[in-house]
Design brief:
Helix 3 runs parallel beside helix 4. This protein is 16% helix and 38% strand. It contains four helices and 15 strands. It has a seven-stranded antiparallel beta sheet. It has 256 residues and is α/β, with parallel strands linked by helices. It binds flavin-adenine dinucleotide. The site of flavin-adenine dinucleotide has 27 residues, from strand 5, strand 7, helix 1 and strand 14.
């Protein structure tokens, strides 16, 4: 299915056959104090496909409350087409089956995944990009930065993490301006910290694409700010709740 908003910019939707795959952990790396990176190999990855940096896959994890499984959404952080190696980054937090799996997993362990079911491919032809979020958004933000195929596109990232040791750096052809907001020592919630940090982003001359992913309440406030206060066009904004405070396994699509 192809969807074109009333703009000169291409936003294409791609669908894939849903498929369950069983992966084996190859490597485990502590990326930052709060982020674990795993690479996975499997013959099941032979036909794996993920076109967009903010695609998501389902992880099938043991249900902590009984037999059976629960599902959690994660970003395919990278896929090495030649070696068929999939990378997933886990932002660690207090509790939850996905976090527990990541903390315990070692090379040789297995993990079942499903998807991605589809991609929303946003072209590189906007004049500027703004990517906003928390730790859970960093895998998609890093992949997006790495994926720009045109040089010198202005890209600003505004990301909230606990402190400077949780910041990451990415290789990119874009003209990248990273803005970090730190929670530690701050007497404000993520939405307020990100909202303040957004003052660093001057609305550019041309067309900009805005992408937001964070805790659902924060993502909603930032989306409303961009649309209502900054007058950003709705067709050029995507906002998602990547988790919901106090609710396990929650995903809230706010705008697509
Ligand atoms: C499209 C999409 C892509 C995503 N990609 C990634 C990714 O690549 N890497 C990644 O780490 N996460 C990613 N997430 C977020 C991840 O799915 C959630 O954080 C998920 O809830 C984690 O599952 P869990 O089993 O650890 O915790 P859950 O069992 O879901 O939650 C347990 C408790 O922890 C809280 N909680 C959940 N997440 C967080 C958090 N990040 N910080 C603080 N408290 C939290 C919940 O509110 C709940 O109270 C993505 C989410 C979506 C929707």
């Amino acid at each position: 299915m192809l969807f074109r908003p009333r703009t000169r910019h291409r936003i294409d939707r791609v669908r894939y056959e849903p498929k369950r795959r069983l992966l084996t952990v190859e490597t485990r790396t502590q990326l930052t104090p709060s982020m674990l990176r795993f690479t996975f190999a499997s013959p099941d990855l032979a036909d794996f496909c993920s076109c967009a940096p903010d695609d998501h896959i389902k992880l099938f994890l043991p249900d902590p409350h009984g037999p059976g499984e629960v599902m959690r959404d994660y970003t395919p952080r990278a896929f090495d087409e030649a070696r068929k190696i999939l990378t997933i980054d886990f932002a660690l937090h207090d509790a939850g089956p996905a976090t527990a799996w990541a903390l315990a997993a070692q090379p040789g362990d297995t993990l079942a995944i499903g998807g991605p079911r589809g991609s929303m491919v946003v072209a590189d032809d906007f004049d500027a990009y703004l990517l906003v979020g928390d730790e859970t958004a960093l895998p998609a933000i890093g992949r997006r930065l790495e994926s720009f195929s045109r040089e010198k596109i202005p890209v600003t990232t505004v990301v909230v993490v606990d402190g400077p040791e949780h910041a990451q750096t990415f290789a990119t052809m874009a003209d990248w301006t990273p803005v970090w907001a730190f929670r530690r020592g701050a007497h404000a919630d993520d939405a307020t910290l990100l909202r303040r940090a957004l003052n660093a982003w001057a609305t550019p001359e041309g067309d900009a694409y805005v992408w937001i992913a964070a805790e659902a309440g924060a993502a909603r406030r930032l989306r409303d700010y961009m649309l209502e206060d900054r007058g950003h066009p709705k067709a050029w904004l995507k906002a998602s709740g990547y988790w919901v405070r106090g609710r396990a396994g929650a995903h809230e699509k706010l705008d697509a």
